[in-house]
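Record 1 of the preview.
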Amino acid sequence: MSQLISLEFQERGRLVTALLNCSCMRNALSRDQALADLPAGVSSRINRFPSDQADVDSIVRACMSFSGALDRLLEIVYYHEGGSLSAQRLEQVVSEIRSKLAAPDQELAPVAHHPTEIAEVTPAPRAQPSQHLLLPYLCNRSAQEEELKKRWREHRENRARRPFLGVIHGDEYECHDMFIERLLTESLPGLLNLNVSMEPFYWYEPPNPKATASQFWQSLGEKCLGLPFEPVEALRKLVLKKLEDSGRPLFVNIGWLTENCEPCDAELFDSFLQFLEEWPELPANKVVICGLSLTYQRSKSSASLFSFWQKSPNDKLRGLVGRLKSKSSDKFTLAVLPELHAVTRKEAEDWPSHPKVRSQRQIHKDVITKLYRQSEDRPIAMEELAQKLQELLSGNPQTRN
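->
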């Protein structure tokens, strides 16, 4: 019988959150398609809800009532997701839950009964993604990491008990998600001198950038704490309690596309910045880092044919990001990292010399040089380049002679 036949509140909540991050489970329509592959006896027992979180929780609860049904649901999700980063995170969560359930002498924390209490389970160490998976993304990005280090040193000196906001921006083909994964597993642990992994919260379906600060708090309460409709002041106290009980720094990842930021005016991010200002003072030695990812969509790169003198939506958003650098507050630190750009030939030729790459496979620089000559030495988008570098790591390069 599967270990996943019985889950306590906290484990079920973690599993529901991980499932919601998967594209095939994010909305009712895609969930219907996935659930069609469950046995009829299981799917007919699922009570459906308009709220995405309540709906996925109901699906998990119903599957727990049938031996093997939850494992079958996971198989379906992995099939639809392929090798996506969300599927890998789901696998990590499932692995951590199985490990916890397999430890008979490890007691689970009691479930909270009052709606404004949080029952904390001591988090298992975060399973690290495959080194092989991250290796292609160790190429370039040194400018972003240097700026992050510089601003973090200033933060520790001046605002150590306030949130830190890092703004990551660039073209949609520059693999924002893997850059964030690189920060979580490569950059931040060394920068923060950590002996534990960070606790990531991937803020799926965040409010619109122009939402009010109160709406950001309500969304955070629902998505991170599992407590919708709580007063904002109560949510702030619960966030503090979560930080005090947790042994790990909190990394909040929130992202918007260009289309989410239209119309792009000077006040676009004011409410979100107000939300950060309203965070209570953090407990001593506790860290909250928010990574705001802004993705420029290629479909938004051109201005309207009827207003050719205007900037494109991407250029408007890029200009607003540039002006964010002048924003300052004593309530949080704001670091706008350099824009993520396509990788130049020199940056790629340096990649085989990275110690972690060399420890996995010896790759001659000439192979990278030939790859760039095929593209007339133009910079290559990270998404395309990472695929080619992965082929080199696997020993199956598809480059032409």
